[in-house]
Amino acid sequence: xxxxxxxxxxxxxxxxxxxxxxxxxxxxxxxxxxxxxxxxxxxxxxxxxxxxxxxxxxxxxxxxxxxxxxxxxxxxxxxxxxxxxxxxxxxxxxxxxxxxxxxxxxxxxxxxxxxxxxxxxxxxxxxxxxxxxxxxxxxxxxxxxxxxxxxxxxxxxxxxxxxxxxxxxxxxxxxxxxxxxxxxxxxxxxxxxxxxxxxxxxxxxxxxxxxxxxxx
Length: 216
Prior knowledge:
- This protein is an alpha/beta fold.
- It has a domain at 16-54 and 113-205: Rossmann fold, CATH 3.40.50.
- The chain is built from eight helices and nine strands.
- The strands form two sheets. A five-stranded parallel beta sheet has the order 2-7-1-8-9, with helices on both faces. A four-stranded mixed beta sheet has the order 4-3-6-5.
């Protein structure tokens, strides 16, 4: 499957109203433990309608998770089959496990005019940026590295070794935030403010004279 890319469209026969009939593709990245799921849930609670793509992953399910929430949990063999069938927009090895973005739900929602949000790491975002430069890229950062340490420790889902690896990865990821269109700070106990910033970005992008579009 060949993915066509499309940046800001300025074709004379395409009106701004026609361009706005398609959904926009937002890409949200953040170091592990920054709270991207919490920010998205808060934004959903505020009533903003958009589709969050459930990634597929080979990592084990954690307590409190279920199939499709927040991931589709599959075997390595199933993951490899999806790659073979060209069913993933991008895939990457992150923290020792494979993650990927299924194409079909992205395509289906954009075509009916619904915004789509991808939650992916900086490695995956770089791949999407090359393939779909018309996407909007947003980076979520913690108030400080110290806050990130507190969050990772409090959730108690990793071993000490895994937590240290995630912190090291976070430092590398934070250094790449200038590759994004927007940066949002999710400070401790200020979740609502971070969600409002994300909401403002998503609404502002729809107010462009020529919205940034992708074609899948």
